Amino acid sequence: MASKEQRQITDLGTLKALAHPLRMKLYRLLFAAEAATASHLAEQVDEAVSLVSYHLRKLAEHGLVEEAEPRSADARERWWQPATQGVSIRDQDFRDAPEKAAAHVAASRLFQEQRSEMYRTYLDQRAAWGREWNEASSDSESLLRLTPAELAEMKRELLDVIKRYDELARDREATGDGQRREHVALHVYGFPFRV
């Protein structure tokens, strides 16, 4: 990846570019693979290579993905990679106009639906993962009574823990520790509700 930093998305055009169902799937797959061709990605999403190429170019126009160094001898293959170490989209950056707020809500709903789809796929395939992965996996719900400041502090602490484990695993993998690693999705939601 070109940058180890997360990209803060603050403009409506970039948000709309990412908040397309196929583009978000492609971005997520590319992020997990670190680099791939349109052909590789097309196989995973069961779409035409030309359509996948089109959507990768749209993501590139907004600086979300970029061309990567070729990983094969075939000079005709065009490799892609995420341009940064992920993206961050904050509600406060889209509150100043009704169109922006509506686009942020629509994008957030799409992201949540795709996350739920990922988890349902895991549940459907749970038996194939084996005991070790199933025991390590988690599914929990906590109903807390917090202030906004406490929720914000907990969010910061959780993000710090996630970042620490990500860096630790990447460092260990880079040194060739030989451990069996899989892609792991961690979805954490913290939001107020009333009863």
Question: Helical region count?
Answer: 6
Number of DSSP-assigned strands = 5
Strand content: 5-15%
Describe the largest sheet: 3 strands, antiparallel
User: What would you call the structural class?
Assistant: mainly alpha
Q: Indicate the percent of residues in helices.
A: 40-55%
Order of helices and strands: EHHEHHEEEHH
The rough form would be described as globular
- What is the radius of gyration? 18 Å
The N- to C-terminal Cα distance equals 45 Å
How does this model look, in words?
The chain is mainly alpha-helical. Helices cover 55% and strands 8% of the residues. It has 6 helices and 5 strands. It has helices at residues 12-18, 21-33, 38-45, 49-61, 98-136, 148-174; strands at 7-9, 36-37, 65-67, 79-82, 87-89. Strands 2-4-3 form a 3-stranded antiparallel beta sheet. Strands 1-5 form a two-stranded parallel sheet. α1 packs across α5 (98-136) and α3 crosses α4 (49-61). It is globular and about 60 Å long. The termini are far apart.
Keywords:
5 strands; three-stranded antiparallel sheet; 55% helix; 8% strand; two-stranded parallel ribbon
Question: Mind sketching the topology for me?
Answer:
Blueprint: E1 7-9, H1 12-18, H2 21-33, E2 36-37, H3 38-45, H4 49-61, E3 65-67, E4 79-82, E5 87-89, H5 98-136, H6 148-174
Parallel strand pairs: 1-5
Antiparallel strand pairs: 2-4, 3-4
Helix pairs in contact: 1-5, 2-4, 3-4
